[in-house]
Amino acid sequence: MTREALKLVTIGGGSSYTPELIEGYIKRRDQLPIKEIWLVDIPAGEEKLNIVGAMAKRMVKAAGLDWQIHLTLDRQAALKDADFVSTQFRVGRLPARIKDERIPNYYGLIGQETNGAGGIFKAFRTVPVILDIVHDMQTLCPNAWLINFTNPSGMITEAIKTYGHWDKVIGLCNVPVMAMLSEPELIGKTLDDLTYKFAGIDHFHWHRVWDNTGQEVTMQIIDKLFGDDDAGLPTNIFDVPFFKDQLANMKMIPCGYHRYYYRQEEMLKHGLEEYANPEGTRAQQVTRIEEELFDLYKDPNLDYKPKQLAERGGAHYSDAACEAIASIYQDKKTHMVVSTLNQGSVPDLPSDHVVEVSAQVGAAGAVPMAFGHFQPAERGWIQLMKNMELVIVEAAATGNYGLALQAFTMNPLIPAGATAKHVLDEMLVAHQKYLPQFATKIKELNAAGLTVQDPIAAELTEKPALA
Question: What is the pLDDT of residue 309?
């Protein structure tokens, strides 16, 4: 890429993470000749967009930069002739996440925003929107790179490639970043001393580590994870320890989200305790954190990212997005962990679908690094989870109710049977405003009188139109 006046667009610009994004651009001012940054949101997010946008302008001014910051609700105007587009939006905002957590919890199931029933519905709501964005990009900025960190990032990246037919896309996750930032000091090393190799899918990957003599140090890190605080664990995941014997057998480090599968009993117990607690589920807690953050952002003297932003579970997402953009623009060939086309890097999965792997990121995009075959236990897990992702994405893109039921049946966090089907149906009703692809089924469920049972989720649910 040779343009000397870059136009960057962020969809979901009113996000509380935007100050981290702006900070990341400022840190890379010598690598990115930015002319304009467009922050885009929807009418319901206009107030937050204005608050965050004003803060972004203060941050840029304090850095002595003349970048133009544009705030808009007109996505198409923003996208025209963009060089890079980043996506960081949540369809239905935090009320939708509350429903994703509380409705499964009501029926004794894990409620989590990217795993289980909640993760499936986050994809159902998000896929149609991302495909609309890609459709706009095909006309308005056909040469742009799309840097996605909208969750569930791996499934959204899969939808962009498979159903949007857009190849210039990289999906990001902060979990590998946090591991690489925190693990080296456990064994007295710096990141520069170590070589990391990650493989799997978003929120379901493993990694191995070598030092600068070529010796594998994965087990040294595993030993340090027991007895110490777990390195790199996102703040939104309850810290129940893995079983050390299991990790010693696999000789790999699972990501924090594996707790929902390896320690499902304990994670469910903790989730149901939160559900019963007056402070509520994680989404309800995050709602309060966001309110505090936006109160801070309103301060006309605040021109830097506040430390309180680290309390959000997605810390480092935005900085990773900035690094991906700089790496592509400068052809830096940086090692990053990204969601991208497999191309044989994980031979236990199809080459033509998206995986999350270590890759070299440069002008050609992400070039995945070979990881090799998994052992039978991990191979079984990853093949189930990836095929479940493919079912979820197809259901989200087509509105096929039978496929949605298949996804619920396949998911290891959802016991198959009548309750699973009822949770699926209830969540369709709860999220009906954001699920146009399932309109026919939702109309049938409304006609049958299906209602949301959890009182807090019910209060947040849009009532069906009287027609």
Answer: 73
- Rounded to an integer, what is the distance from CA 50 to the centroid of its chain? 24
| 203 labelled binding-site residue | yes
On whether the CB atoms of residues 296 and 308 are closer than 8 A, the answer is yes
Residue 306 pLDDT greater than 90, yes or no: no
Indicate which residues carry an active-site annotation. Answer: 257
Q: What domains are defined for the chain?
A: 6-172+282-315 (3.40.50.720), 398-462 (no CATH)
**pLDDT at site 449:** 97
Place of tokens 């925003």: 113
pLDDT above 70: residue 227: no
CB neighbour class for 459 (10 Å; exposed up to 12, middle 13-18, buried from 19): exposed
- Over residues 103-154, the pLDDT tens digits come to 999 999 999 999 999 999 999 999 999 999 999 999 999 999 999 999 999 9
Strands 68-72 and 34-40: parallel
* Bridge partners of residue 38, in order along the sequence: 9, 70
Residue type for position 253 = I
- 97 labelled as ligand-binding? yes
The two three-digit tokens of residue 80, written as one number: 């025209």
